[in-house]
From TrEMBL, chain A:
Keyword annotations: Endoplasmic reticulum, ER-Golgi transport, Golgi apparatus, Lipoprotein, Palmitate, Transport
Protein purpose: May play a role in vesicular transport from endoplasmic reticulum to Golgi.
Matching InterPro entries: Bet3, NO_sig/Golgi_transp_ligand-bd, TRAPP_component
Record localization: Endoplasmic reticulum; Golgi apparatus, cis-Golgi network
Any single GO CC term annotated in Swiss-Prot or TrEMBL for this entry: endoplasmic reticulum
Name this protein carries in UniProt: Trafficking protein particle complex subunit
Transport in keyword set: yes
Organism: Myotis myotis (Greater mouse-eared bat)
Subunit structure and binding partners: Homodimer. Component of the multisubunit TRAPP (transport protein particle) complex, which includes at least TRAPPC2, TRAPPC2L, TRAPPC3, TRAPPC3L, TRAPPC4, TRAPPC5, TRAPPC8, TRAPPC9, TRAPPC10, TRAPPC11 and TRAPPC12.
Protein's UniProt keywords contain Endoplasmic reticulum: yes
Family, per entry: Belongs to the TRAPP small subunits family. BET3 subfamily.
A Gene Ontology biological process term: Golgi vesicle transport
TrEMBL record, chain B:
Organism: Myotis myotis (Greater mouse-eared bat)
GO biological process entries: endoplasmic reticulum to Golgi vesicle-mediated transport
GO cellular component, one term: TRAPP complex
Keywords assigned by UniProt, alphabetized: Endoplasmic reticulum, ER-Golgi transport, Golgi apparatus, Phosphoprotein, Transport
SUPFAM superfamilies: Ligand-binding domain in the NO signalling and Golgi transport
CDD domains the UniProt entry points to: TRAPPC6A_Trs33
Pfam assignment, any one: TRAPP
Protein name (database record): Trafficking protein particle complex subunit 6A
Localization (cell): Endoplasmic reticulum; Golgi apparatus, cis-Golgi network
Length: 181, 161
């Protein structure tokens, strides 16, 4: 696949802003359409799921990930390859339990909230970045892994860090995650 | 660096979801119109915000035509990684911008098959153009038309008070 011609530096910046601004406009629109924070959160998750199911193909085509043998490896790939590729950040990964199926991604930086100083008034339960949870969940499901993905902590809500929790559930079928041939 | 495909994926999902949502509320043409307006409005807000973030040097335009050329070259290049294929004007405030391969339509295939669906995929971008123009001090009406995918035309009519 040929790479596009090198872009002027200004293009890079406008491009980054485009997604972040569009996302902000989407959240604002959803806040108009839905009174309850939970409904907006659900909708963002649902949209993220739809994106994730398609994004995973793009990811597999462009990355060189090999076969994974553990949830821990998969989580590392999400943090170090996928997040890096799409958002330019690398969350750190921690494992939260001894059965090694619960993990956290700690986001030090988060481009999605670059223009957001605080949650809108009256929206204290809004998970502003819930699209990300849906994306991860949808992508994992396409490689036959069921997982619960939620925000455990959120800087926008006053927590000290932003933390996404991934809990791997029973595999959807017995196939191991493998790179698409 | 946020990857360019994220915008495309988000846009596609927005079109699908907002469309379904408004169709549930009003299955007739009213619901469809609402969706188009909503998408256009979102594009407008984003266009305004993008316009505000452009470096000052970029914005020293001598005349209206320069602004439109900027949209065709620089804005289009930044947003869609390509330039508009042609720009025509009647020199009386109407401009037609033609893209022979509009990226947000390309995935839908080519020809006449999805013609009916095309407007949904153009509404946000019409708003984007209108919003950027607005920040640059130009009030306009922007519409789009598709004769055959993935080629489309954006018509910009400058509103003079």
């Amino acid at each position: 696949m040929s790479r596009p011609a090198p872009r002027k530096p200004e293009y890079h910046k406008i491009n980054k802003d485009l997604f972040v601004l569009t996302y902000g406009a989407l959240v604002a629109q959803l806040c108009k359409d839905y009174e309850k924070d939970e409904d907006v959160n659900t909708y963002l998750d649902k949209m993220g799921y739809g994106i994730g199911t398609r994004l995973v193909e793009d990811f597999l085509a462009r990355s060189c990930v090999g076969r994974c043998h553990s949830y821990s490896e998969i989580t590392d790939i999400i943090a170090q390859v996928a997040f890096k590729m799409y958002l330019g950040i690398t969350p750190s990964v921690t494992c939260n339990n001894s059965s090694r199926n619960e993990f956290s991604l700690i986001l030090d930086k988060n481009p999605l909230v670059e223009f957001v100083e605080e949650l809108p008034a009256g929206r204290s339960s809004l998970c502003y970045c819930n699209l990300l949870c849906g994306i991860i969940r949808g992508a994992l499901e396409m490689v036959h892994l069921a997982a619960d993905v939620t925000f455990l902590q959120d800087r926008l809500k006053g927590d000290s860090v932003t933390e996404i929790g991934i809990t791997f559930l029973k595999k959807l079928d017995e196939k191991k995650y493998r790179r698409k041939k | 660096m946020v990857d360019a495909v994220l915008f495309e994926f988000l846009h596609t999902e927005m079109v699908a979801e907002l469309w379904a949502h408004d169709s549930d509320l009003d299955p007739g043409p009213g619901g469809q119109k609402t969706s188009l307006l909503v998408l256009e409005g979102m594009g407008f807000r984003v266009g305004q915000a993008l316009g505000e973030r452009l470096p000052r040097e970029m914005l020293a335009f001598r005349e209206e035509l320069d602004v439109l050329k900027f949209l065709c070259k620089d804005l289009w290049g930044a947003v869609f990684q390509k330039q508009m294929d042609s720009l025509r004007t009647n020199h009386q405030g109407t401009y037609v911008l033609q893209d022979s391969s509009f990226p947000l339509l390309v995935r839908m295939g080519s020809g006449l098959q999805y013609l009916e669906e095309a407007p949904k995929f153009l509404a946000f971008t019409c708003g984007l153009l209108r919003g950027t123009l607005s920040t640059l001090g130009i009030k306009s009406l922007v519409t789009a038309s598709v004769a055959a995918l993935p080629a489309c035309k954006f018509q910009v009519v400058i509103q003079r008070s």
